[in-house]
Design goal:
five-stranded parallel sheet, 17 helices, 382 residues, Rossmann fold, Alpha-Beta Plaits, Actin, Chain A, domain 4
Length: 382
């Protein structure tokens, strides 16, 4: 929300070819507590001054020799690409008021000045202008978060997928190649466990900065190691409560009350974040039922992948699955009830690996030790 101190600190430019009119308005604003007021008697200076200072409000006299207020607004329109012209027109001619509004001015003040009217209209205009700025900043933030990892600022999975698709299309079209390099931070879990998530976050930021510093401008560095469940929880909190939370908070929500299957006793949790409307800290209570509902989309994707894999299994492997069941590995396997959900959907026994967090890495390492066998398996499927 915009406070009174924000309004009084807003940047204001007074434009009037008459020195007396400038001094009168300056005195009114100074006495009212405004602290960032500038002025000019030359309308030809306005556009350059606005490019330099980006005023929150321009008090613009309409009738000036050489270059009137309408010409000034035309020049300002080319600068304000957002379409919001922060102009309050000053005129003694009633006929000019409507023309000024049509030209882009947001309001007008009649001459001779009435102190109460001047201060009220300026206050209201500045409040609207500053709120407009907050809305635009929030929109840019949300747009960035939709395509970038909030911790490192790198491209997220969604943006990476778009970039890879574009690169593949370009490679096919030009009969050229492209490369994708995956990096894994060995021992990263140990840092989180021994030094805390704060240290882990700082490490990720440093790695991201170093990677971005060594690639070309047209290359993409992305973070795809983030948990899709966490990203879904972050998106849910924004959509349902207009609350911005970080990855660590999302991870804590997932660990404490997240589930894939109804719990015998549902849970609640106090969540702290930043209200996107007011920009202030906010605390609210979240239930495990709504988090489970929010996680349905990524869980559905997992189940669909399992179904497709089972459909493609050769008969001998299918019979083995019936006897021994499915073993779940990876961090997602730790989500409460995910084994029960998969068992219910597939009708097969489902077990969680003893150490699901390291099982994937260890299994990959063993496969790489048997490259000859891996090549034979790959060639038999082609």
């Amino acid at each position: 929300m915009v406070s009174r101190s924000d309004i009084l600190a807003a940047k204001v430019l007074i434009v009037d070819d008459q020195e007396a009119g400038v001094r009168l308005l300056e005195g009114m604003l100074r006495d009212a507590g405004y602290t960032a007021v500038m002025s000019t008697t030359d309308p030809r200076d306005v556009c350059e001054l606005h490019r330099k200072h980006r005023y929150d409000l321009i008090l613009l006299d309409i009738q000036m020799p050489g270059m009137n207020g309408f010409h000034v607004m035309k020049g300002l329109s080319a600068i304000e690409t957002s379409g919001y012209l922060p102009v309050l027109a000053l005129t003694a001619e009633p006929a000019y008021k409507l023309h000024a509004l049509k030209a882009g001015a947001k309001d007008f003040i009649s001459k001779p000045f009435d102190l109460e009217e001047v201060l009220t209209r300026i206050h209201n205009m500045l409040e609207i202008r500053l709120l407009h700025g907050e809305v635009c900043n929030n929109a840019r933030t949300l747009e960035s978060l939709a395509l970038h990892d909030p911790l490192t600022g790198l491209a997220n999975r969604r943006l990476l997928t778009e970039r890879i698709s574009a690169a593949l299309n370009n490679a096919r079209r030009n009969k050229s190649g492209m490369a994708v390099i995956y990096l894994d931070l060995d021992g990263f879990k140990l840092i989180n466990d021994t030094r805390g998530h704060g240290a882990g976050d700082e490490l990720l930021k440093v790695v991201a900065q170093r990677l971005e510093s060594v690639v070309r401008e047209e290359d993409t560095v992305a973070r795809v190691g983030g948990d899709e469940f966490d990203e879904t929880i972050v998106a849910h909190m924004k959509r349902a409560y207009n609350l911005m939370i970080g990855e660590r908070t999302a991870e804590e929500i997932k660990i404490r009350i997240g589930s894939a299957f109804p719990l015998e006793q549902e849970l609640t949790m106090e969540v702290k974040g930043r209200d996107l409307s007011a920009g202030l800290p906010k605390t609210l209570s979240v239930r495990s039922q709504e988090i489970r509902e929010a996680l349905k989309e990524p869980l559905s994707s997992i189940l669909e992948s399992i179904r497709i894999t089972l459909e493609r299994c050769p008969p001998e492997l299918s019979s083995d699955l019936v006897d021994r069941g499915i073993v779940m590995a990876g961090g997602g396997a730790l989500l409460r009830g995910i084994d029960r959900l998969v068992a219910e959907e597939t009708g097969l026994p489902v077990h969680v690996a003893d150490d699901p967090l390291s099982a994937v890495a260890e299994g990959t390492g063993r496969v790489l030790q048997e490259l000859a066998f891996l090549k034979r398996v790959a060639s038999s499927r082609t």
